[in-house]
Amino acid sequence: MAGRAWLSDQRGELAAEKILDAAEKLFAERDPASVGMNEIARAAGCSRATLYRYFESRDALYTAYVHRWANTLYQELTQRLAGIDDPAQRLVTGITESLTLVRSNPSLASWFAETGPPIGVAMAEQSDVIAAMVRTFLSALGTDDPEVVEQRARWVVRVMTSLLSFPGRDADDERAMLTEFVVPVVVSPGATATRAPTPRRR
Q1: More confident residue, 58 or 202
Q2: What does R_g of the chain's alpha carbons equal in angstroms?
Q3: Count of Cβ atoms closer than 10 Å to residue 71 Cβ
Q4: How far apart are CA 102 and CA 70, in angstroms?
Q5: Domain with 111 in it
Q6: Which pLDDT does position 139 carry in this prediction?
Q7: Of 51, 19, 167, 195, whose CA–CA distance to 103 is shortest?
Q8: What residues contact 156, with CB distance under 8 A and at least 6 apart?
Q9: According to the UniProt record, which residues make up the DNA-binding region (predicted)?
Q10: Domain match, 35 and 112 both
Q11: Contact 198, 75 (CB under 8 A)
Q12: Can you tell me the distance from the alpha carbon of 98 to that of 62, in angstroms, rounded to the nearest whole number?
């Protein structure tokens, strides 16, 4: 009965957002891998059956949560990179700002905690949405070959998840590593940056 009452007030996308909001609060407090669907349902104020109407499994909920935050971070990052035209600087700043945004948010940082299973790494590296965003970002750095962009996008995601799980000594150390080892591989010689389109929120 509680599930029906809950459903009568929340429909479709709004209901899914309410569930993800509840999950976010739990993820900020604990390792996401330790948060069960029962706990999320209780936190959202709905029944377990209602929860499964919107997310058929915990993996489906994880994926929706990661994609929601990926869109939010991408839009924030686009604003932070406004006015940076040099491709190398844009790449390094884009990665370092992304790391800062994730690390400063407890509900995201917990996915890459050294003390728990690195589920954030697997989610990020397997996500087609994140890969598409990174491809869009890299295409704006002046690389046109889709195959090259695809390969570099997957590699950049792996670099970022590695730094989230195993940070450098400090921000300057990470920036130096990116400048020395990532820029020469990812930024094509003579590239000119163009503006990346902002992805539509789904």
Answers
A1: 58
A2: 19
A3: 18
A4: 10
A5: 61-186
A6: 85
A7: 167
A8: 95, 134, 138, 182, 186
A9: 36-55
A10: no
A11: yes
A12: 19
Neighbours of 167 (CB within 10 A): 15
Of 56, 71, 95, the position where a domain reaches its end is 56
Concatenated DSSP letters of 55-67: -SSHHHHHHHHHH
Mean pLDDT for the stretch of residues 23-44: 94
Nearest 5°: phi and psi at 142? 105, 10
Written as six digits, the tokens of 90 are 């844009």
Q: Looking at 63-149, which runs of residues are DSSP E strands? A: none
Q: Pick from 77, 59, 197, 187: which is nearest to 123 by CA?
A: 59
CATH of the domain at 13: 1.10.10.60
Q: Report pTM.
A: 0.80
Residue 115: the pLDDT is 61
Instruction: Give phi and psi for 86, each to the nearest 5.
Output: -70, 120
Query: Do the beta carbons of residue 112 and residue 120 sit within 8 Å?
Result: yes
Rounded Cα–Cα distance for residues 81 and 29 (Å): 31
- pLDDT tens across 121-158, in order? 788 888 888 888 898 888 888 766 888 888 999 999 99
Residue 13 — pLDDT band, cuts 50, 70, 90?
A: confident
Answer whether 87's CB lies under 8 Å from 97's CB: no
